Amino acid sequence: MRRNRRAGLLGVIFALAWALAWLASCGGSSSGTGTTGRNAFLAVPQANAIAAYRVDTSSGNFKSVLGSPFSGGTSPISIAVHPSGKFIYAANEGGNNISLFKIDNNTGELTEVMPRTAAGLNPSSLVMDSGGDLIFVANETSNNVSVFSVSASDGTLTEIQGSPFATGAKPVALALSPSGQFLYVASGNLALVFGYSVGSGTGSLVAGSLLPIPGSPFAVASAPFSLAIDPAGHFLYAANFSVNTVSGMAIDSSTGALTLTSGSPFATGKSPISVTVHPSGKFLYVANLASNNISAYTIDSTTGVATQLTKSPFAAGTEPVFVTSDPAGKFLYVCNQSAKNIFQFAISADNGGIPSSTISTTTNLAPAELVFAK
Hints:
Layout lengths: L1 H24 L3 E2 L6 E8 L4 E8 L5 E4 L4 E2 L4 E6 L5 E6 L4 E7 L6 E9 L4 E6 L5 E6 L4 E7 L6 E3 L5 E2 L4 E6 L5 E6 L4 E7 L11 E3 L5 E2 L4 E6 L5 E6 L4 E7 L6 E3 L5 E2 L4 E6 L5 E6 L4 E7 L6 E3 L5 E2 L4 E6 L5 E6 L4 E6 L10 E6 L7 E3 L2
Parallel strand pairs: 1-4
Antiparallel strand pairs: 2-3, 2-34, 3-4, 3-5, 6-7, 7-8, 8-9, 10-11, 11-12, 12-13, 12-14, 15-16, 16-17, 17-18, 17-19, 20-21, 21-22, 22-23, 22-24, 25-26, 26-27, 27-28, 27-29, 30-31, 31-32, 32-33
């Protein structure tokens, strides 16, 4: 009995020491009520956890929420926040399931709701529609997409009739049009993007059901690893990991069909792995894993052509794996895998430039994906 108690006490001490080290590295802790700003969440696969932060809207600085990181499923790789700000979802690549967490509006703390929802094999990406009614999950090994309806009252998931839907080999990234009409799936093994019309629930079609768009799949360059759509829903961009380019495609507003823009694909740094469009729709950013930098472009609002900024690319941390901006478009954030930190850039409202950076927070373990609550 004494040995068991001693082992348990040592486990508590080690866990407490690890948590304190995490909080110290993040610059302290915050309950969320003492800092003006919004909540942000980070997938940390190596810790089987989701980290929670309070982000100051003026400075862009991060403060760790008390108790963060919060344990969840095995290797959470992709996350999404419900538009209500009440729930967060995580695709657990190692657990073949989806975690649901409730968000405490006062503190920002997370509480996982069990049981987890089964998905396909190695879920690698998830997206939610703007109304918070549907979640789409790309299952990398089973080569399909699972679709779930979302309960508005408690956030629980129910797989829709007909799910999962077959797609191309190794689906690694998803992008949903702002209207929710079209879903695009990047096939990591093929130089293709698969497009689907999303059922609205009218007639015989179940809400969220997927029907291939005429002409799908659409050719891009090799190994598209990330997708992004501009806020107006006019253009889709794909980061082509193997050939150091980003493809730009115009979206047909009625059918969802894709057509390569003039001059596409556009040159990037080495091994582009993540792409995002600024909330204004004017700028495009690409994280280049092997060259440790960020490529930045202006977007022509009529043609979708991406023109690289004069001083691009901009130095980032070591092995940037994910790039995104805050909802207001003031700051660009870069998750660095080897450096185990998040870089913060101030975005120039005039030309989209990001001339200097600071380390917003260190994470101790490799970060994966960062999302903000609206």
